[in-house]
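Regression test case RT-17, inverse folding.

Input:
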């Protein structure tokens, strides 16, 4: 379908059902216009005579399972109604050209030269990594043009880079692999790209949540083949919204803080001759507590205990959702946040303890929730600086946003919802 024909399809409402599911009914007019604009952008850049397809890949939110995946634990995550939206078409060449409206980028990659740059950084290297990952996986690649826009907030723990990676995987799967690939393959290719082309020690959580879509639980006990279960739960029916609050960028270098979390957990596992905590039990740790405290340190012990209890919470939350016990689900969200704050200790960095944006935002949100007697909150993502999550009834969301932005700054709070689809070709739903 040509660009102008696709624009006409959008205007006639033939994609409205999907747009409502992806972005919400209240965003229907805006989402139609956004699709038209990205199609128009493609047409102005590449011409209007090619057959094009529309693609969408969401950002993600971590609902529970804070810092568990790297020790082969369990997580609960969801795709959100912020996404990378792209128009693409095959170009019968050995070149991939990508134009990013959001970041003002326009670059071309030769499929015969997929080696990373010396810096191993930036979008072009990431795209090369995705293409090379397809080749290494025995999948086909080819030349195509893509025009992409994104409203996935960067540096907010909602995986803007993974969203982009999964968008490209969807394009390559549809264009050159007859749609045969599954979303687990997408995630492994995204991980490969970040590991080898960015030198970033990423796991699979971000990519899996963006690729699969909806509300999912992942067990990383066997990380090469994680067990993924999609939870059939209508989040919108509960009348709650998910709010992400940016608390300010930390000024300290946090790489050591992030690295210390898995390292200290693995130090406890090493006491038993194992590599990760999933290979031992909480009972083992408690039974040998004096020796482990001496060998690994007290914070390592506390972080290990967080890991075991957080895994149980993920299981409890999943079961509560399956049983329709939404208040029990929220109670476990609160418990997860408390554990991250007290046991995992990733809400501020000891290297700059006077800078505590996350804990200030959490304290204010807890005061708000205590007054309203409704809702839950927790640190979101890696922690130490950055972002918190609140889950609140819709009728008090506007009040909360005004309240928290007065303290944390205008535009710091983002209202989101869980969408049912991951990385998709939108034309399949028209």
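Golden output:
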């Amino acid at each position: 379908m040509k660009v102008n024909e696709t624009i006409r399809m959008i205007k006639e409402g033939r994609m409205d059902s999907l747009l409502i599911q992806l972005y919400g009914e209240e965003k229907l007019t805006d989402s139609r216009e956004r699709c038209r604009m990205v199609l128009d952008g493609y047409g102005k850049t590449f011409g209007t005579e090619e057959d094009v397809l529309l693609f969408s890949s969401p950002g993600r939110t971590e609902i529970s399972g804070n810092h568990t995946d790297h020790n082969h634990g369990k997580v609960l995550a969801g795709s959100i109604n912020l996404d990378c939206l792209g128009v693409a078409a095959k170009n019968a060449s050995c070149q991939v050209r990508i134009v990013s409206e959001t970041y003002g980028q326009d670059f071309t990659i030769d499929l015969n030269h997929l080696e990373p740059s010396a810096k191993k950084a930036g979008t072009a290297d990431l795209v090369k990594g995705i293409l090379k990952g397809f080749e290494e996986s025995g999948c086909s690649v080819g030349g195509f043009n893509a025009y992409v826009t994104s409203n996935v907030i960067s540096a907010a723990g909602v995986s803007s880079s993974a969203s982009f990676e999964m968008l490209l995987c969807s394009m390559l799967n549809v264009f050159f692999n007859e749609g045969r690939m599954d979303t687990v393959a997408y995630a492994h290719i995204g991980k490969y790209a970040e590991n080898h082309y960015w030198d970033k020690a990423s796991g699979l959580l971000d990519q899996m949540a963006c690729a699969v879509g909806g509300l999912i639980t992942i067990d990383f006990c066997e990380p090469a083949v994680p067990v993924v279960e999609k939870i059939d739960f209508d989040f919108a029916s509960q009348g709650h919204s998910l709010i992400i609050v940016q608390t300010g960028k930390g000024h300290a270098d946090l790489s050591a803080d992030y690295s210390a979390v898995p390292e200290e957990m693995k130090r406890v596992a090493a006491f038993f001759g194992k590599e990760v905590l999933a290979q031992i039990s909480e009972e083992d740790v408690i039974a040998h507590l004096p020796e482990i405290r001496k060998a690994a340190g007290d914070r390592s012990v506390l972080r290990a205990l967080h890991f075991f209890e957080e895994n149980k919470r993920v299981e409890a939350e999943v079961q509560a959702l399956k049983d329709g016990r939404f208040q029990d689900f929220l109670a476990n969200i609160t418990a997860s946040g408390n554990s991250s704050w007290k046991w995992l200790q990733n809400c501020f960095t000891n290297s700059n303890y006077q800078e505590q944006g996350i804990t200030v935002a959490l304290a204010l949100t807890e005061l708000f929730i205590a007054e309203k007697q409704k809702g839950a909150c927790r640190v979101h993502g890696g922690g130490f600086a950055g972002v918190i999550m609140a889950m609140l009834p819709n009728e008090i969301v506007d009040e909360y946003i005004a309240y928290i932005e007065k303290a944390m700054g205008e535009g710091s709070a983002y209202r989101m919802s869980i969408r049912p689809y991951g990385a998709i070709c939108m034309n399949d739903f028209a």
